[in-house]
Design brief:
It is a single chain. By secondary structure, this protein is an alpha/beta fold. The chain has a domain of 138 residues: Thiolase/Chalcone synthase (Peroxisomal Thiolase, Chain A, domain 1), CATH 3.40.47.10. The chain contains eleven helices and ten strands. Strand 9 and strand 10 form a beta hairpin. The chain is globular, with a radius of gyration of 20 Å.
């Protein structure tokens, strides 16, 4: 028997994810987000959202408050509030958490949460141009690096922090390559039809490479340290994508059949040098708050920003491999920063339902040393 105050996910879906410079390149994060929102809300049985919370970590050139643009272009009424969340990799998962908090605190209508990212379209900047250049060379900072992949506190690129973490936690290169190959294998054999939303340019995830093996990955050169282990093959693929989730209380469902319940969430912080293991304390807090053990969770979605990072978290938490990222992860599917949090929740829900329902946890690490985790439950 459901409680009228239960927090329900009524719909969850995502676009097929495009590879960097691929089929979704040039479209922009707002049009990608609009496609996801329109696709999700196309079902006439769903109640209309009263607000939109949208994650986007690289909003340069996408106009002020992209969430409001998406809401209005999707045909939502002018009185629909909307705002954009930038929490780097956690943007759309935080948007979902904020939606759940607002509903718990009495929001009058369902809330649409999600996120989009067009990593192929991130621009370069020309600092100082406003006041003119008189003489000398100037730099053109890459937004991808400057406002995304480099930590302003440590000065290190995310991959450089993972090299340090892998050494600290004893993860070897062959282990990371093996997980990366397994991610592609799982993604290639997974059925994503229940979670995919239509897009005219792309019908499938574009970065999956079923032919990849640990042996072929072993031939790639490290990117950040000649003696290190992080390569283009065992790190998440740069990609373009969008995902959306409609959340409501039970008393707002208007007869729609829910996909899942949101049972709780947590966040945590660690030393920015240890960003890769920030999901560990977030998950520990979440489980403790609900008096659960790792063995009680039927499926886990832990974002694969890097294979080595996932392995660090998996071993510290004791997550069983056969319940972890069962349909592959960011290494194979891609990691469109602002969309990933909602993407892993959508995947988790549909993979759980395909396996008969149960409890699931979606979690990820965030640049600057932050972690988020969300606990959901689905019925068969």
């Amino acid at each position: 028997m459901r409680n009228p105050g239960d927090l329900l996910i009524l719909a969850a879906g995502r676009l097929p994810q495009g590879r960097y410079g691929g089929s979704l390149a040039g479209l922009g994060a707002v049009p990608l987000g609009l496609s996801a929102v329109e696709g999700l809300l196309s079902r006439p049985t769903l109640p209309r959202p009263g607000s939109l919370l949208w994650g986007m970590a690289r909003s340069h050139t996408q106009g002020m408050n992209p969430a409001r643009t998406i809401a209005l272009k999707a045909g939502l009424p002018h009185d629909t509030p909307a705002f954009t969340v930038n929490m780097a990799c956690g943007s759309s998962l935080q948007a979902l958490i904020l939606a759940a908090q607002r509903l718990r605190d009495g929001a009058e209508a369902p809330i649409l949460a999600g996120g989009s990212e067009a990593m192929s379209d991130t621009p370069h900047l020309i600092p100082g141009l406003r006041w003119g250049f008189r003489m000398g060379h100037r730099e053109l900072p890459d937004v991808m690096h400057h406002d995304g992949l480099r930590c302003p506190v440590t000065g290190l690129l995310m991959g450089e922090t993972i090299e340090r973490l892998a050494t600290k936690r004893g993860i070897a290169r062959p282990e990371a390559d093996a997980w990366a190959a397994e991610s592609h294998r799982r993604a290639a054999s997974a059925d994503f039809q229940a979670e995919l939303l239509p897009h005219a340019n792309l019908a499938h995830d574009e970065s999956i490479r079923p032919e990849i093996t640990a042996e072929s990955l072993a031939r790639l050169s490290p990117v950040f340290d000649p003696q290190g282990q992080v390569t283009a093959g065992n790190a998440s693929a740069l990609s373009d994508g969008a995902a959306a989730i409609l959340v409501a209380r039970q008393d707002q469902a208007e007869g729609a059949t829910p996909l899942a319940r949101i049972l709780g969430w947590s966040e945590a912080g660690v030393d920015p040098l240890d960003i890769g293991e920030a999901p560990v304390p977030a998950v520990q807090r979440l489980l403790a708050a609900h008096r659960l053990m790792v063995a009680d969770i039927d499926l886990w979605e832990l974002n694969e920003a890097f294979s080595a990072q996932l392995l660090v978290c998996q071993r510290q938490l004791g997550l069983p491999e056969d319940r972890l990222n069962v349909a592959g992860g960011g290494v194979a599917l891609g990691h469109p920063i602002g969309a990933t949090g909602a993407r892993i929740v959508a995947t988790l829900i549909h993979q759980l339902k395909a396996r008969g329902g149960g409890l699931g946890v979606a979690t990820l690490g965030i640049g600057g040393g932050l972690g988020l985790a969300v606990l959901i439950e689905t019925a068969p």
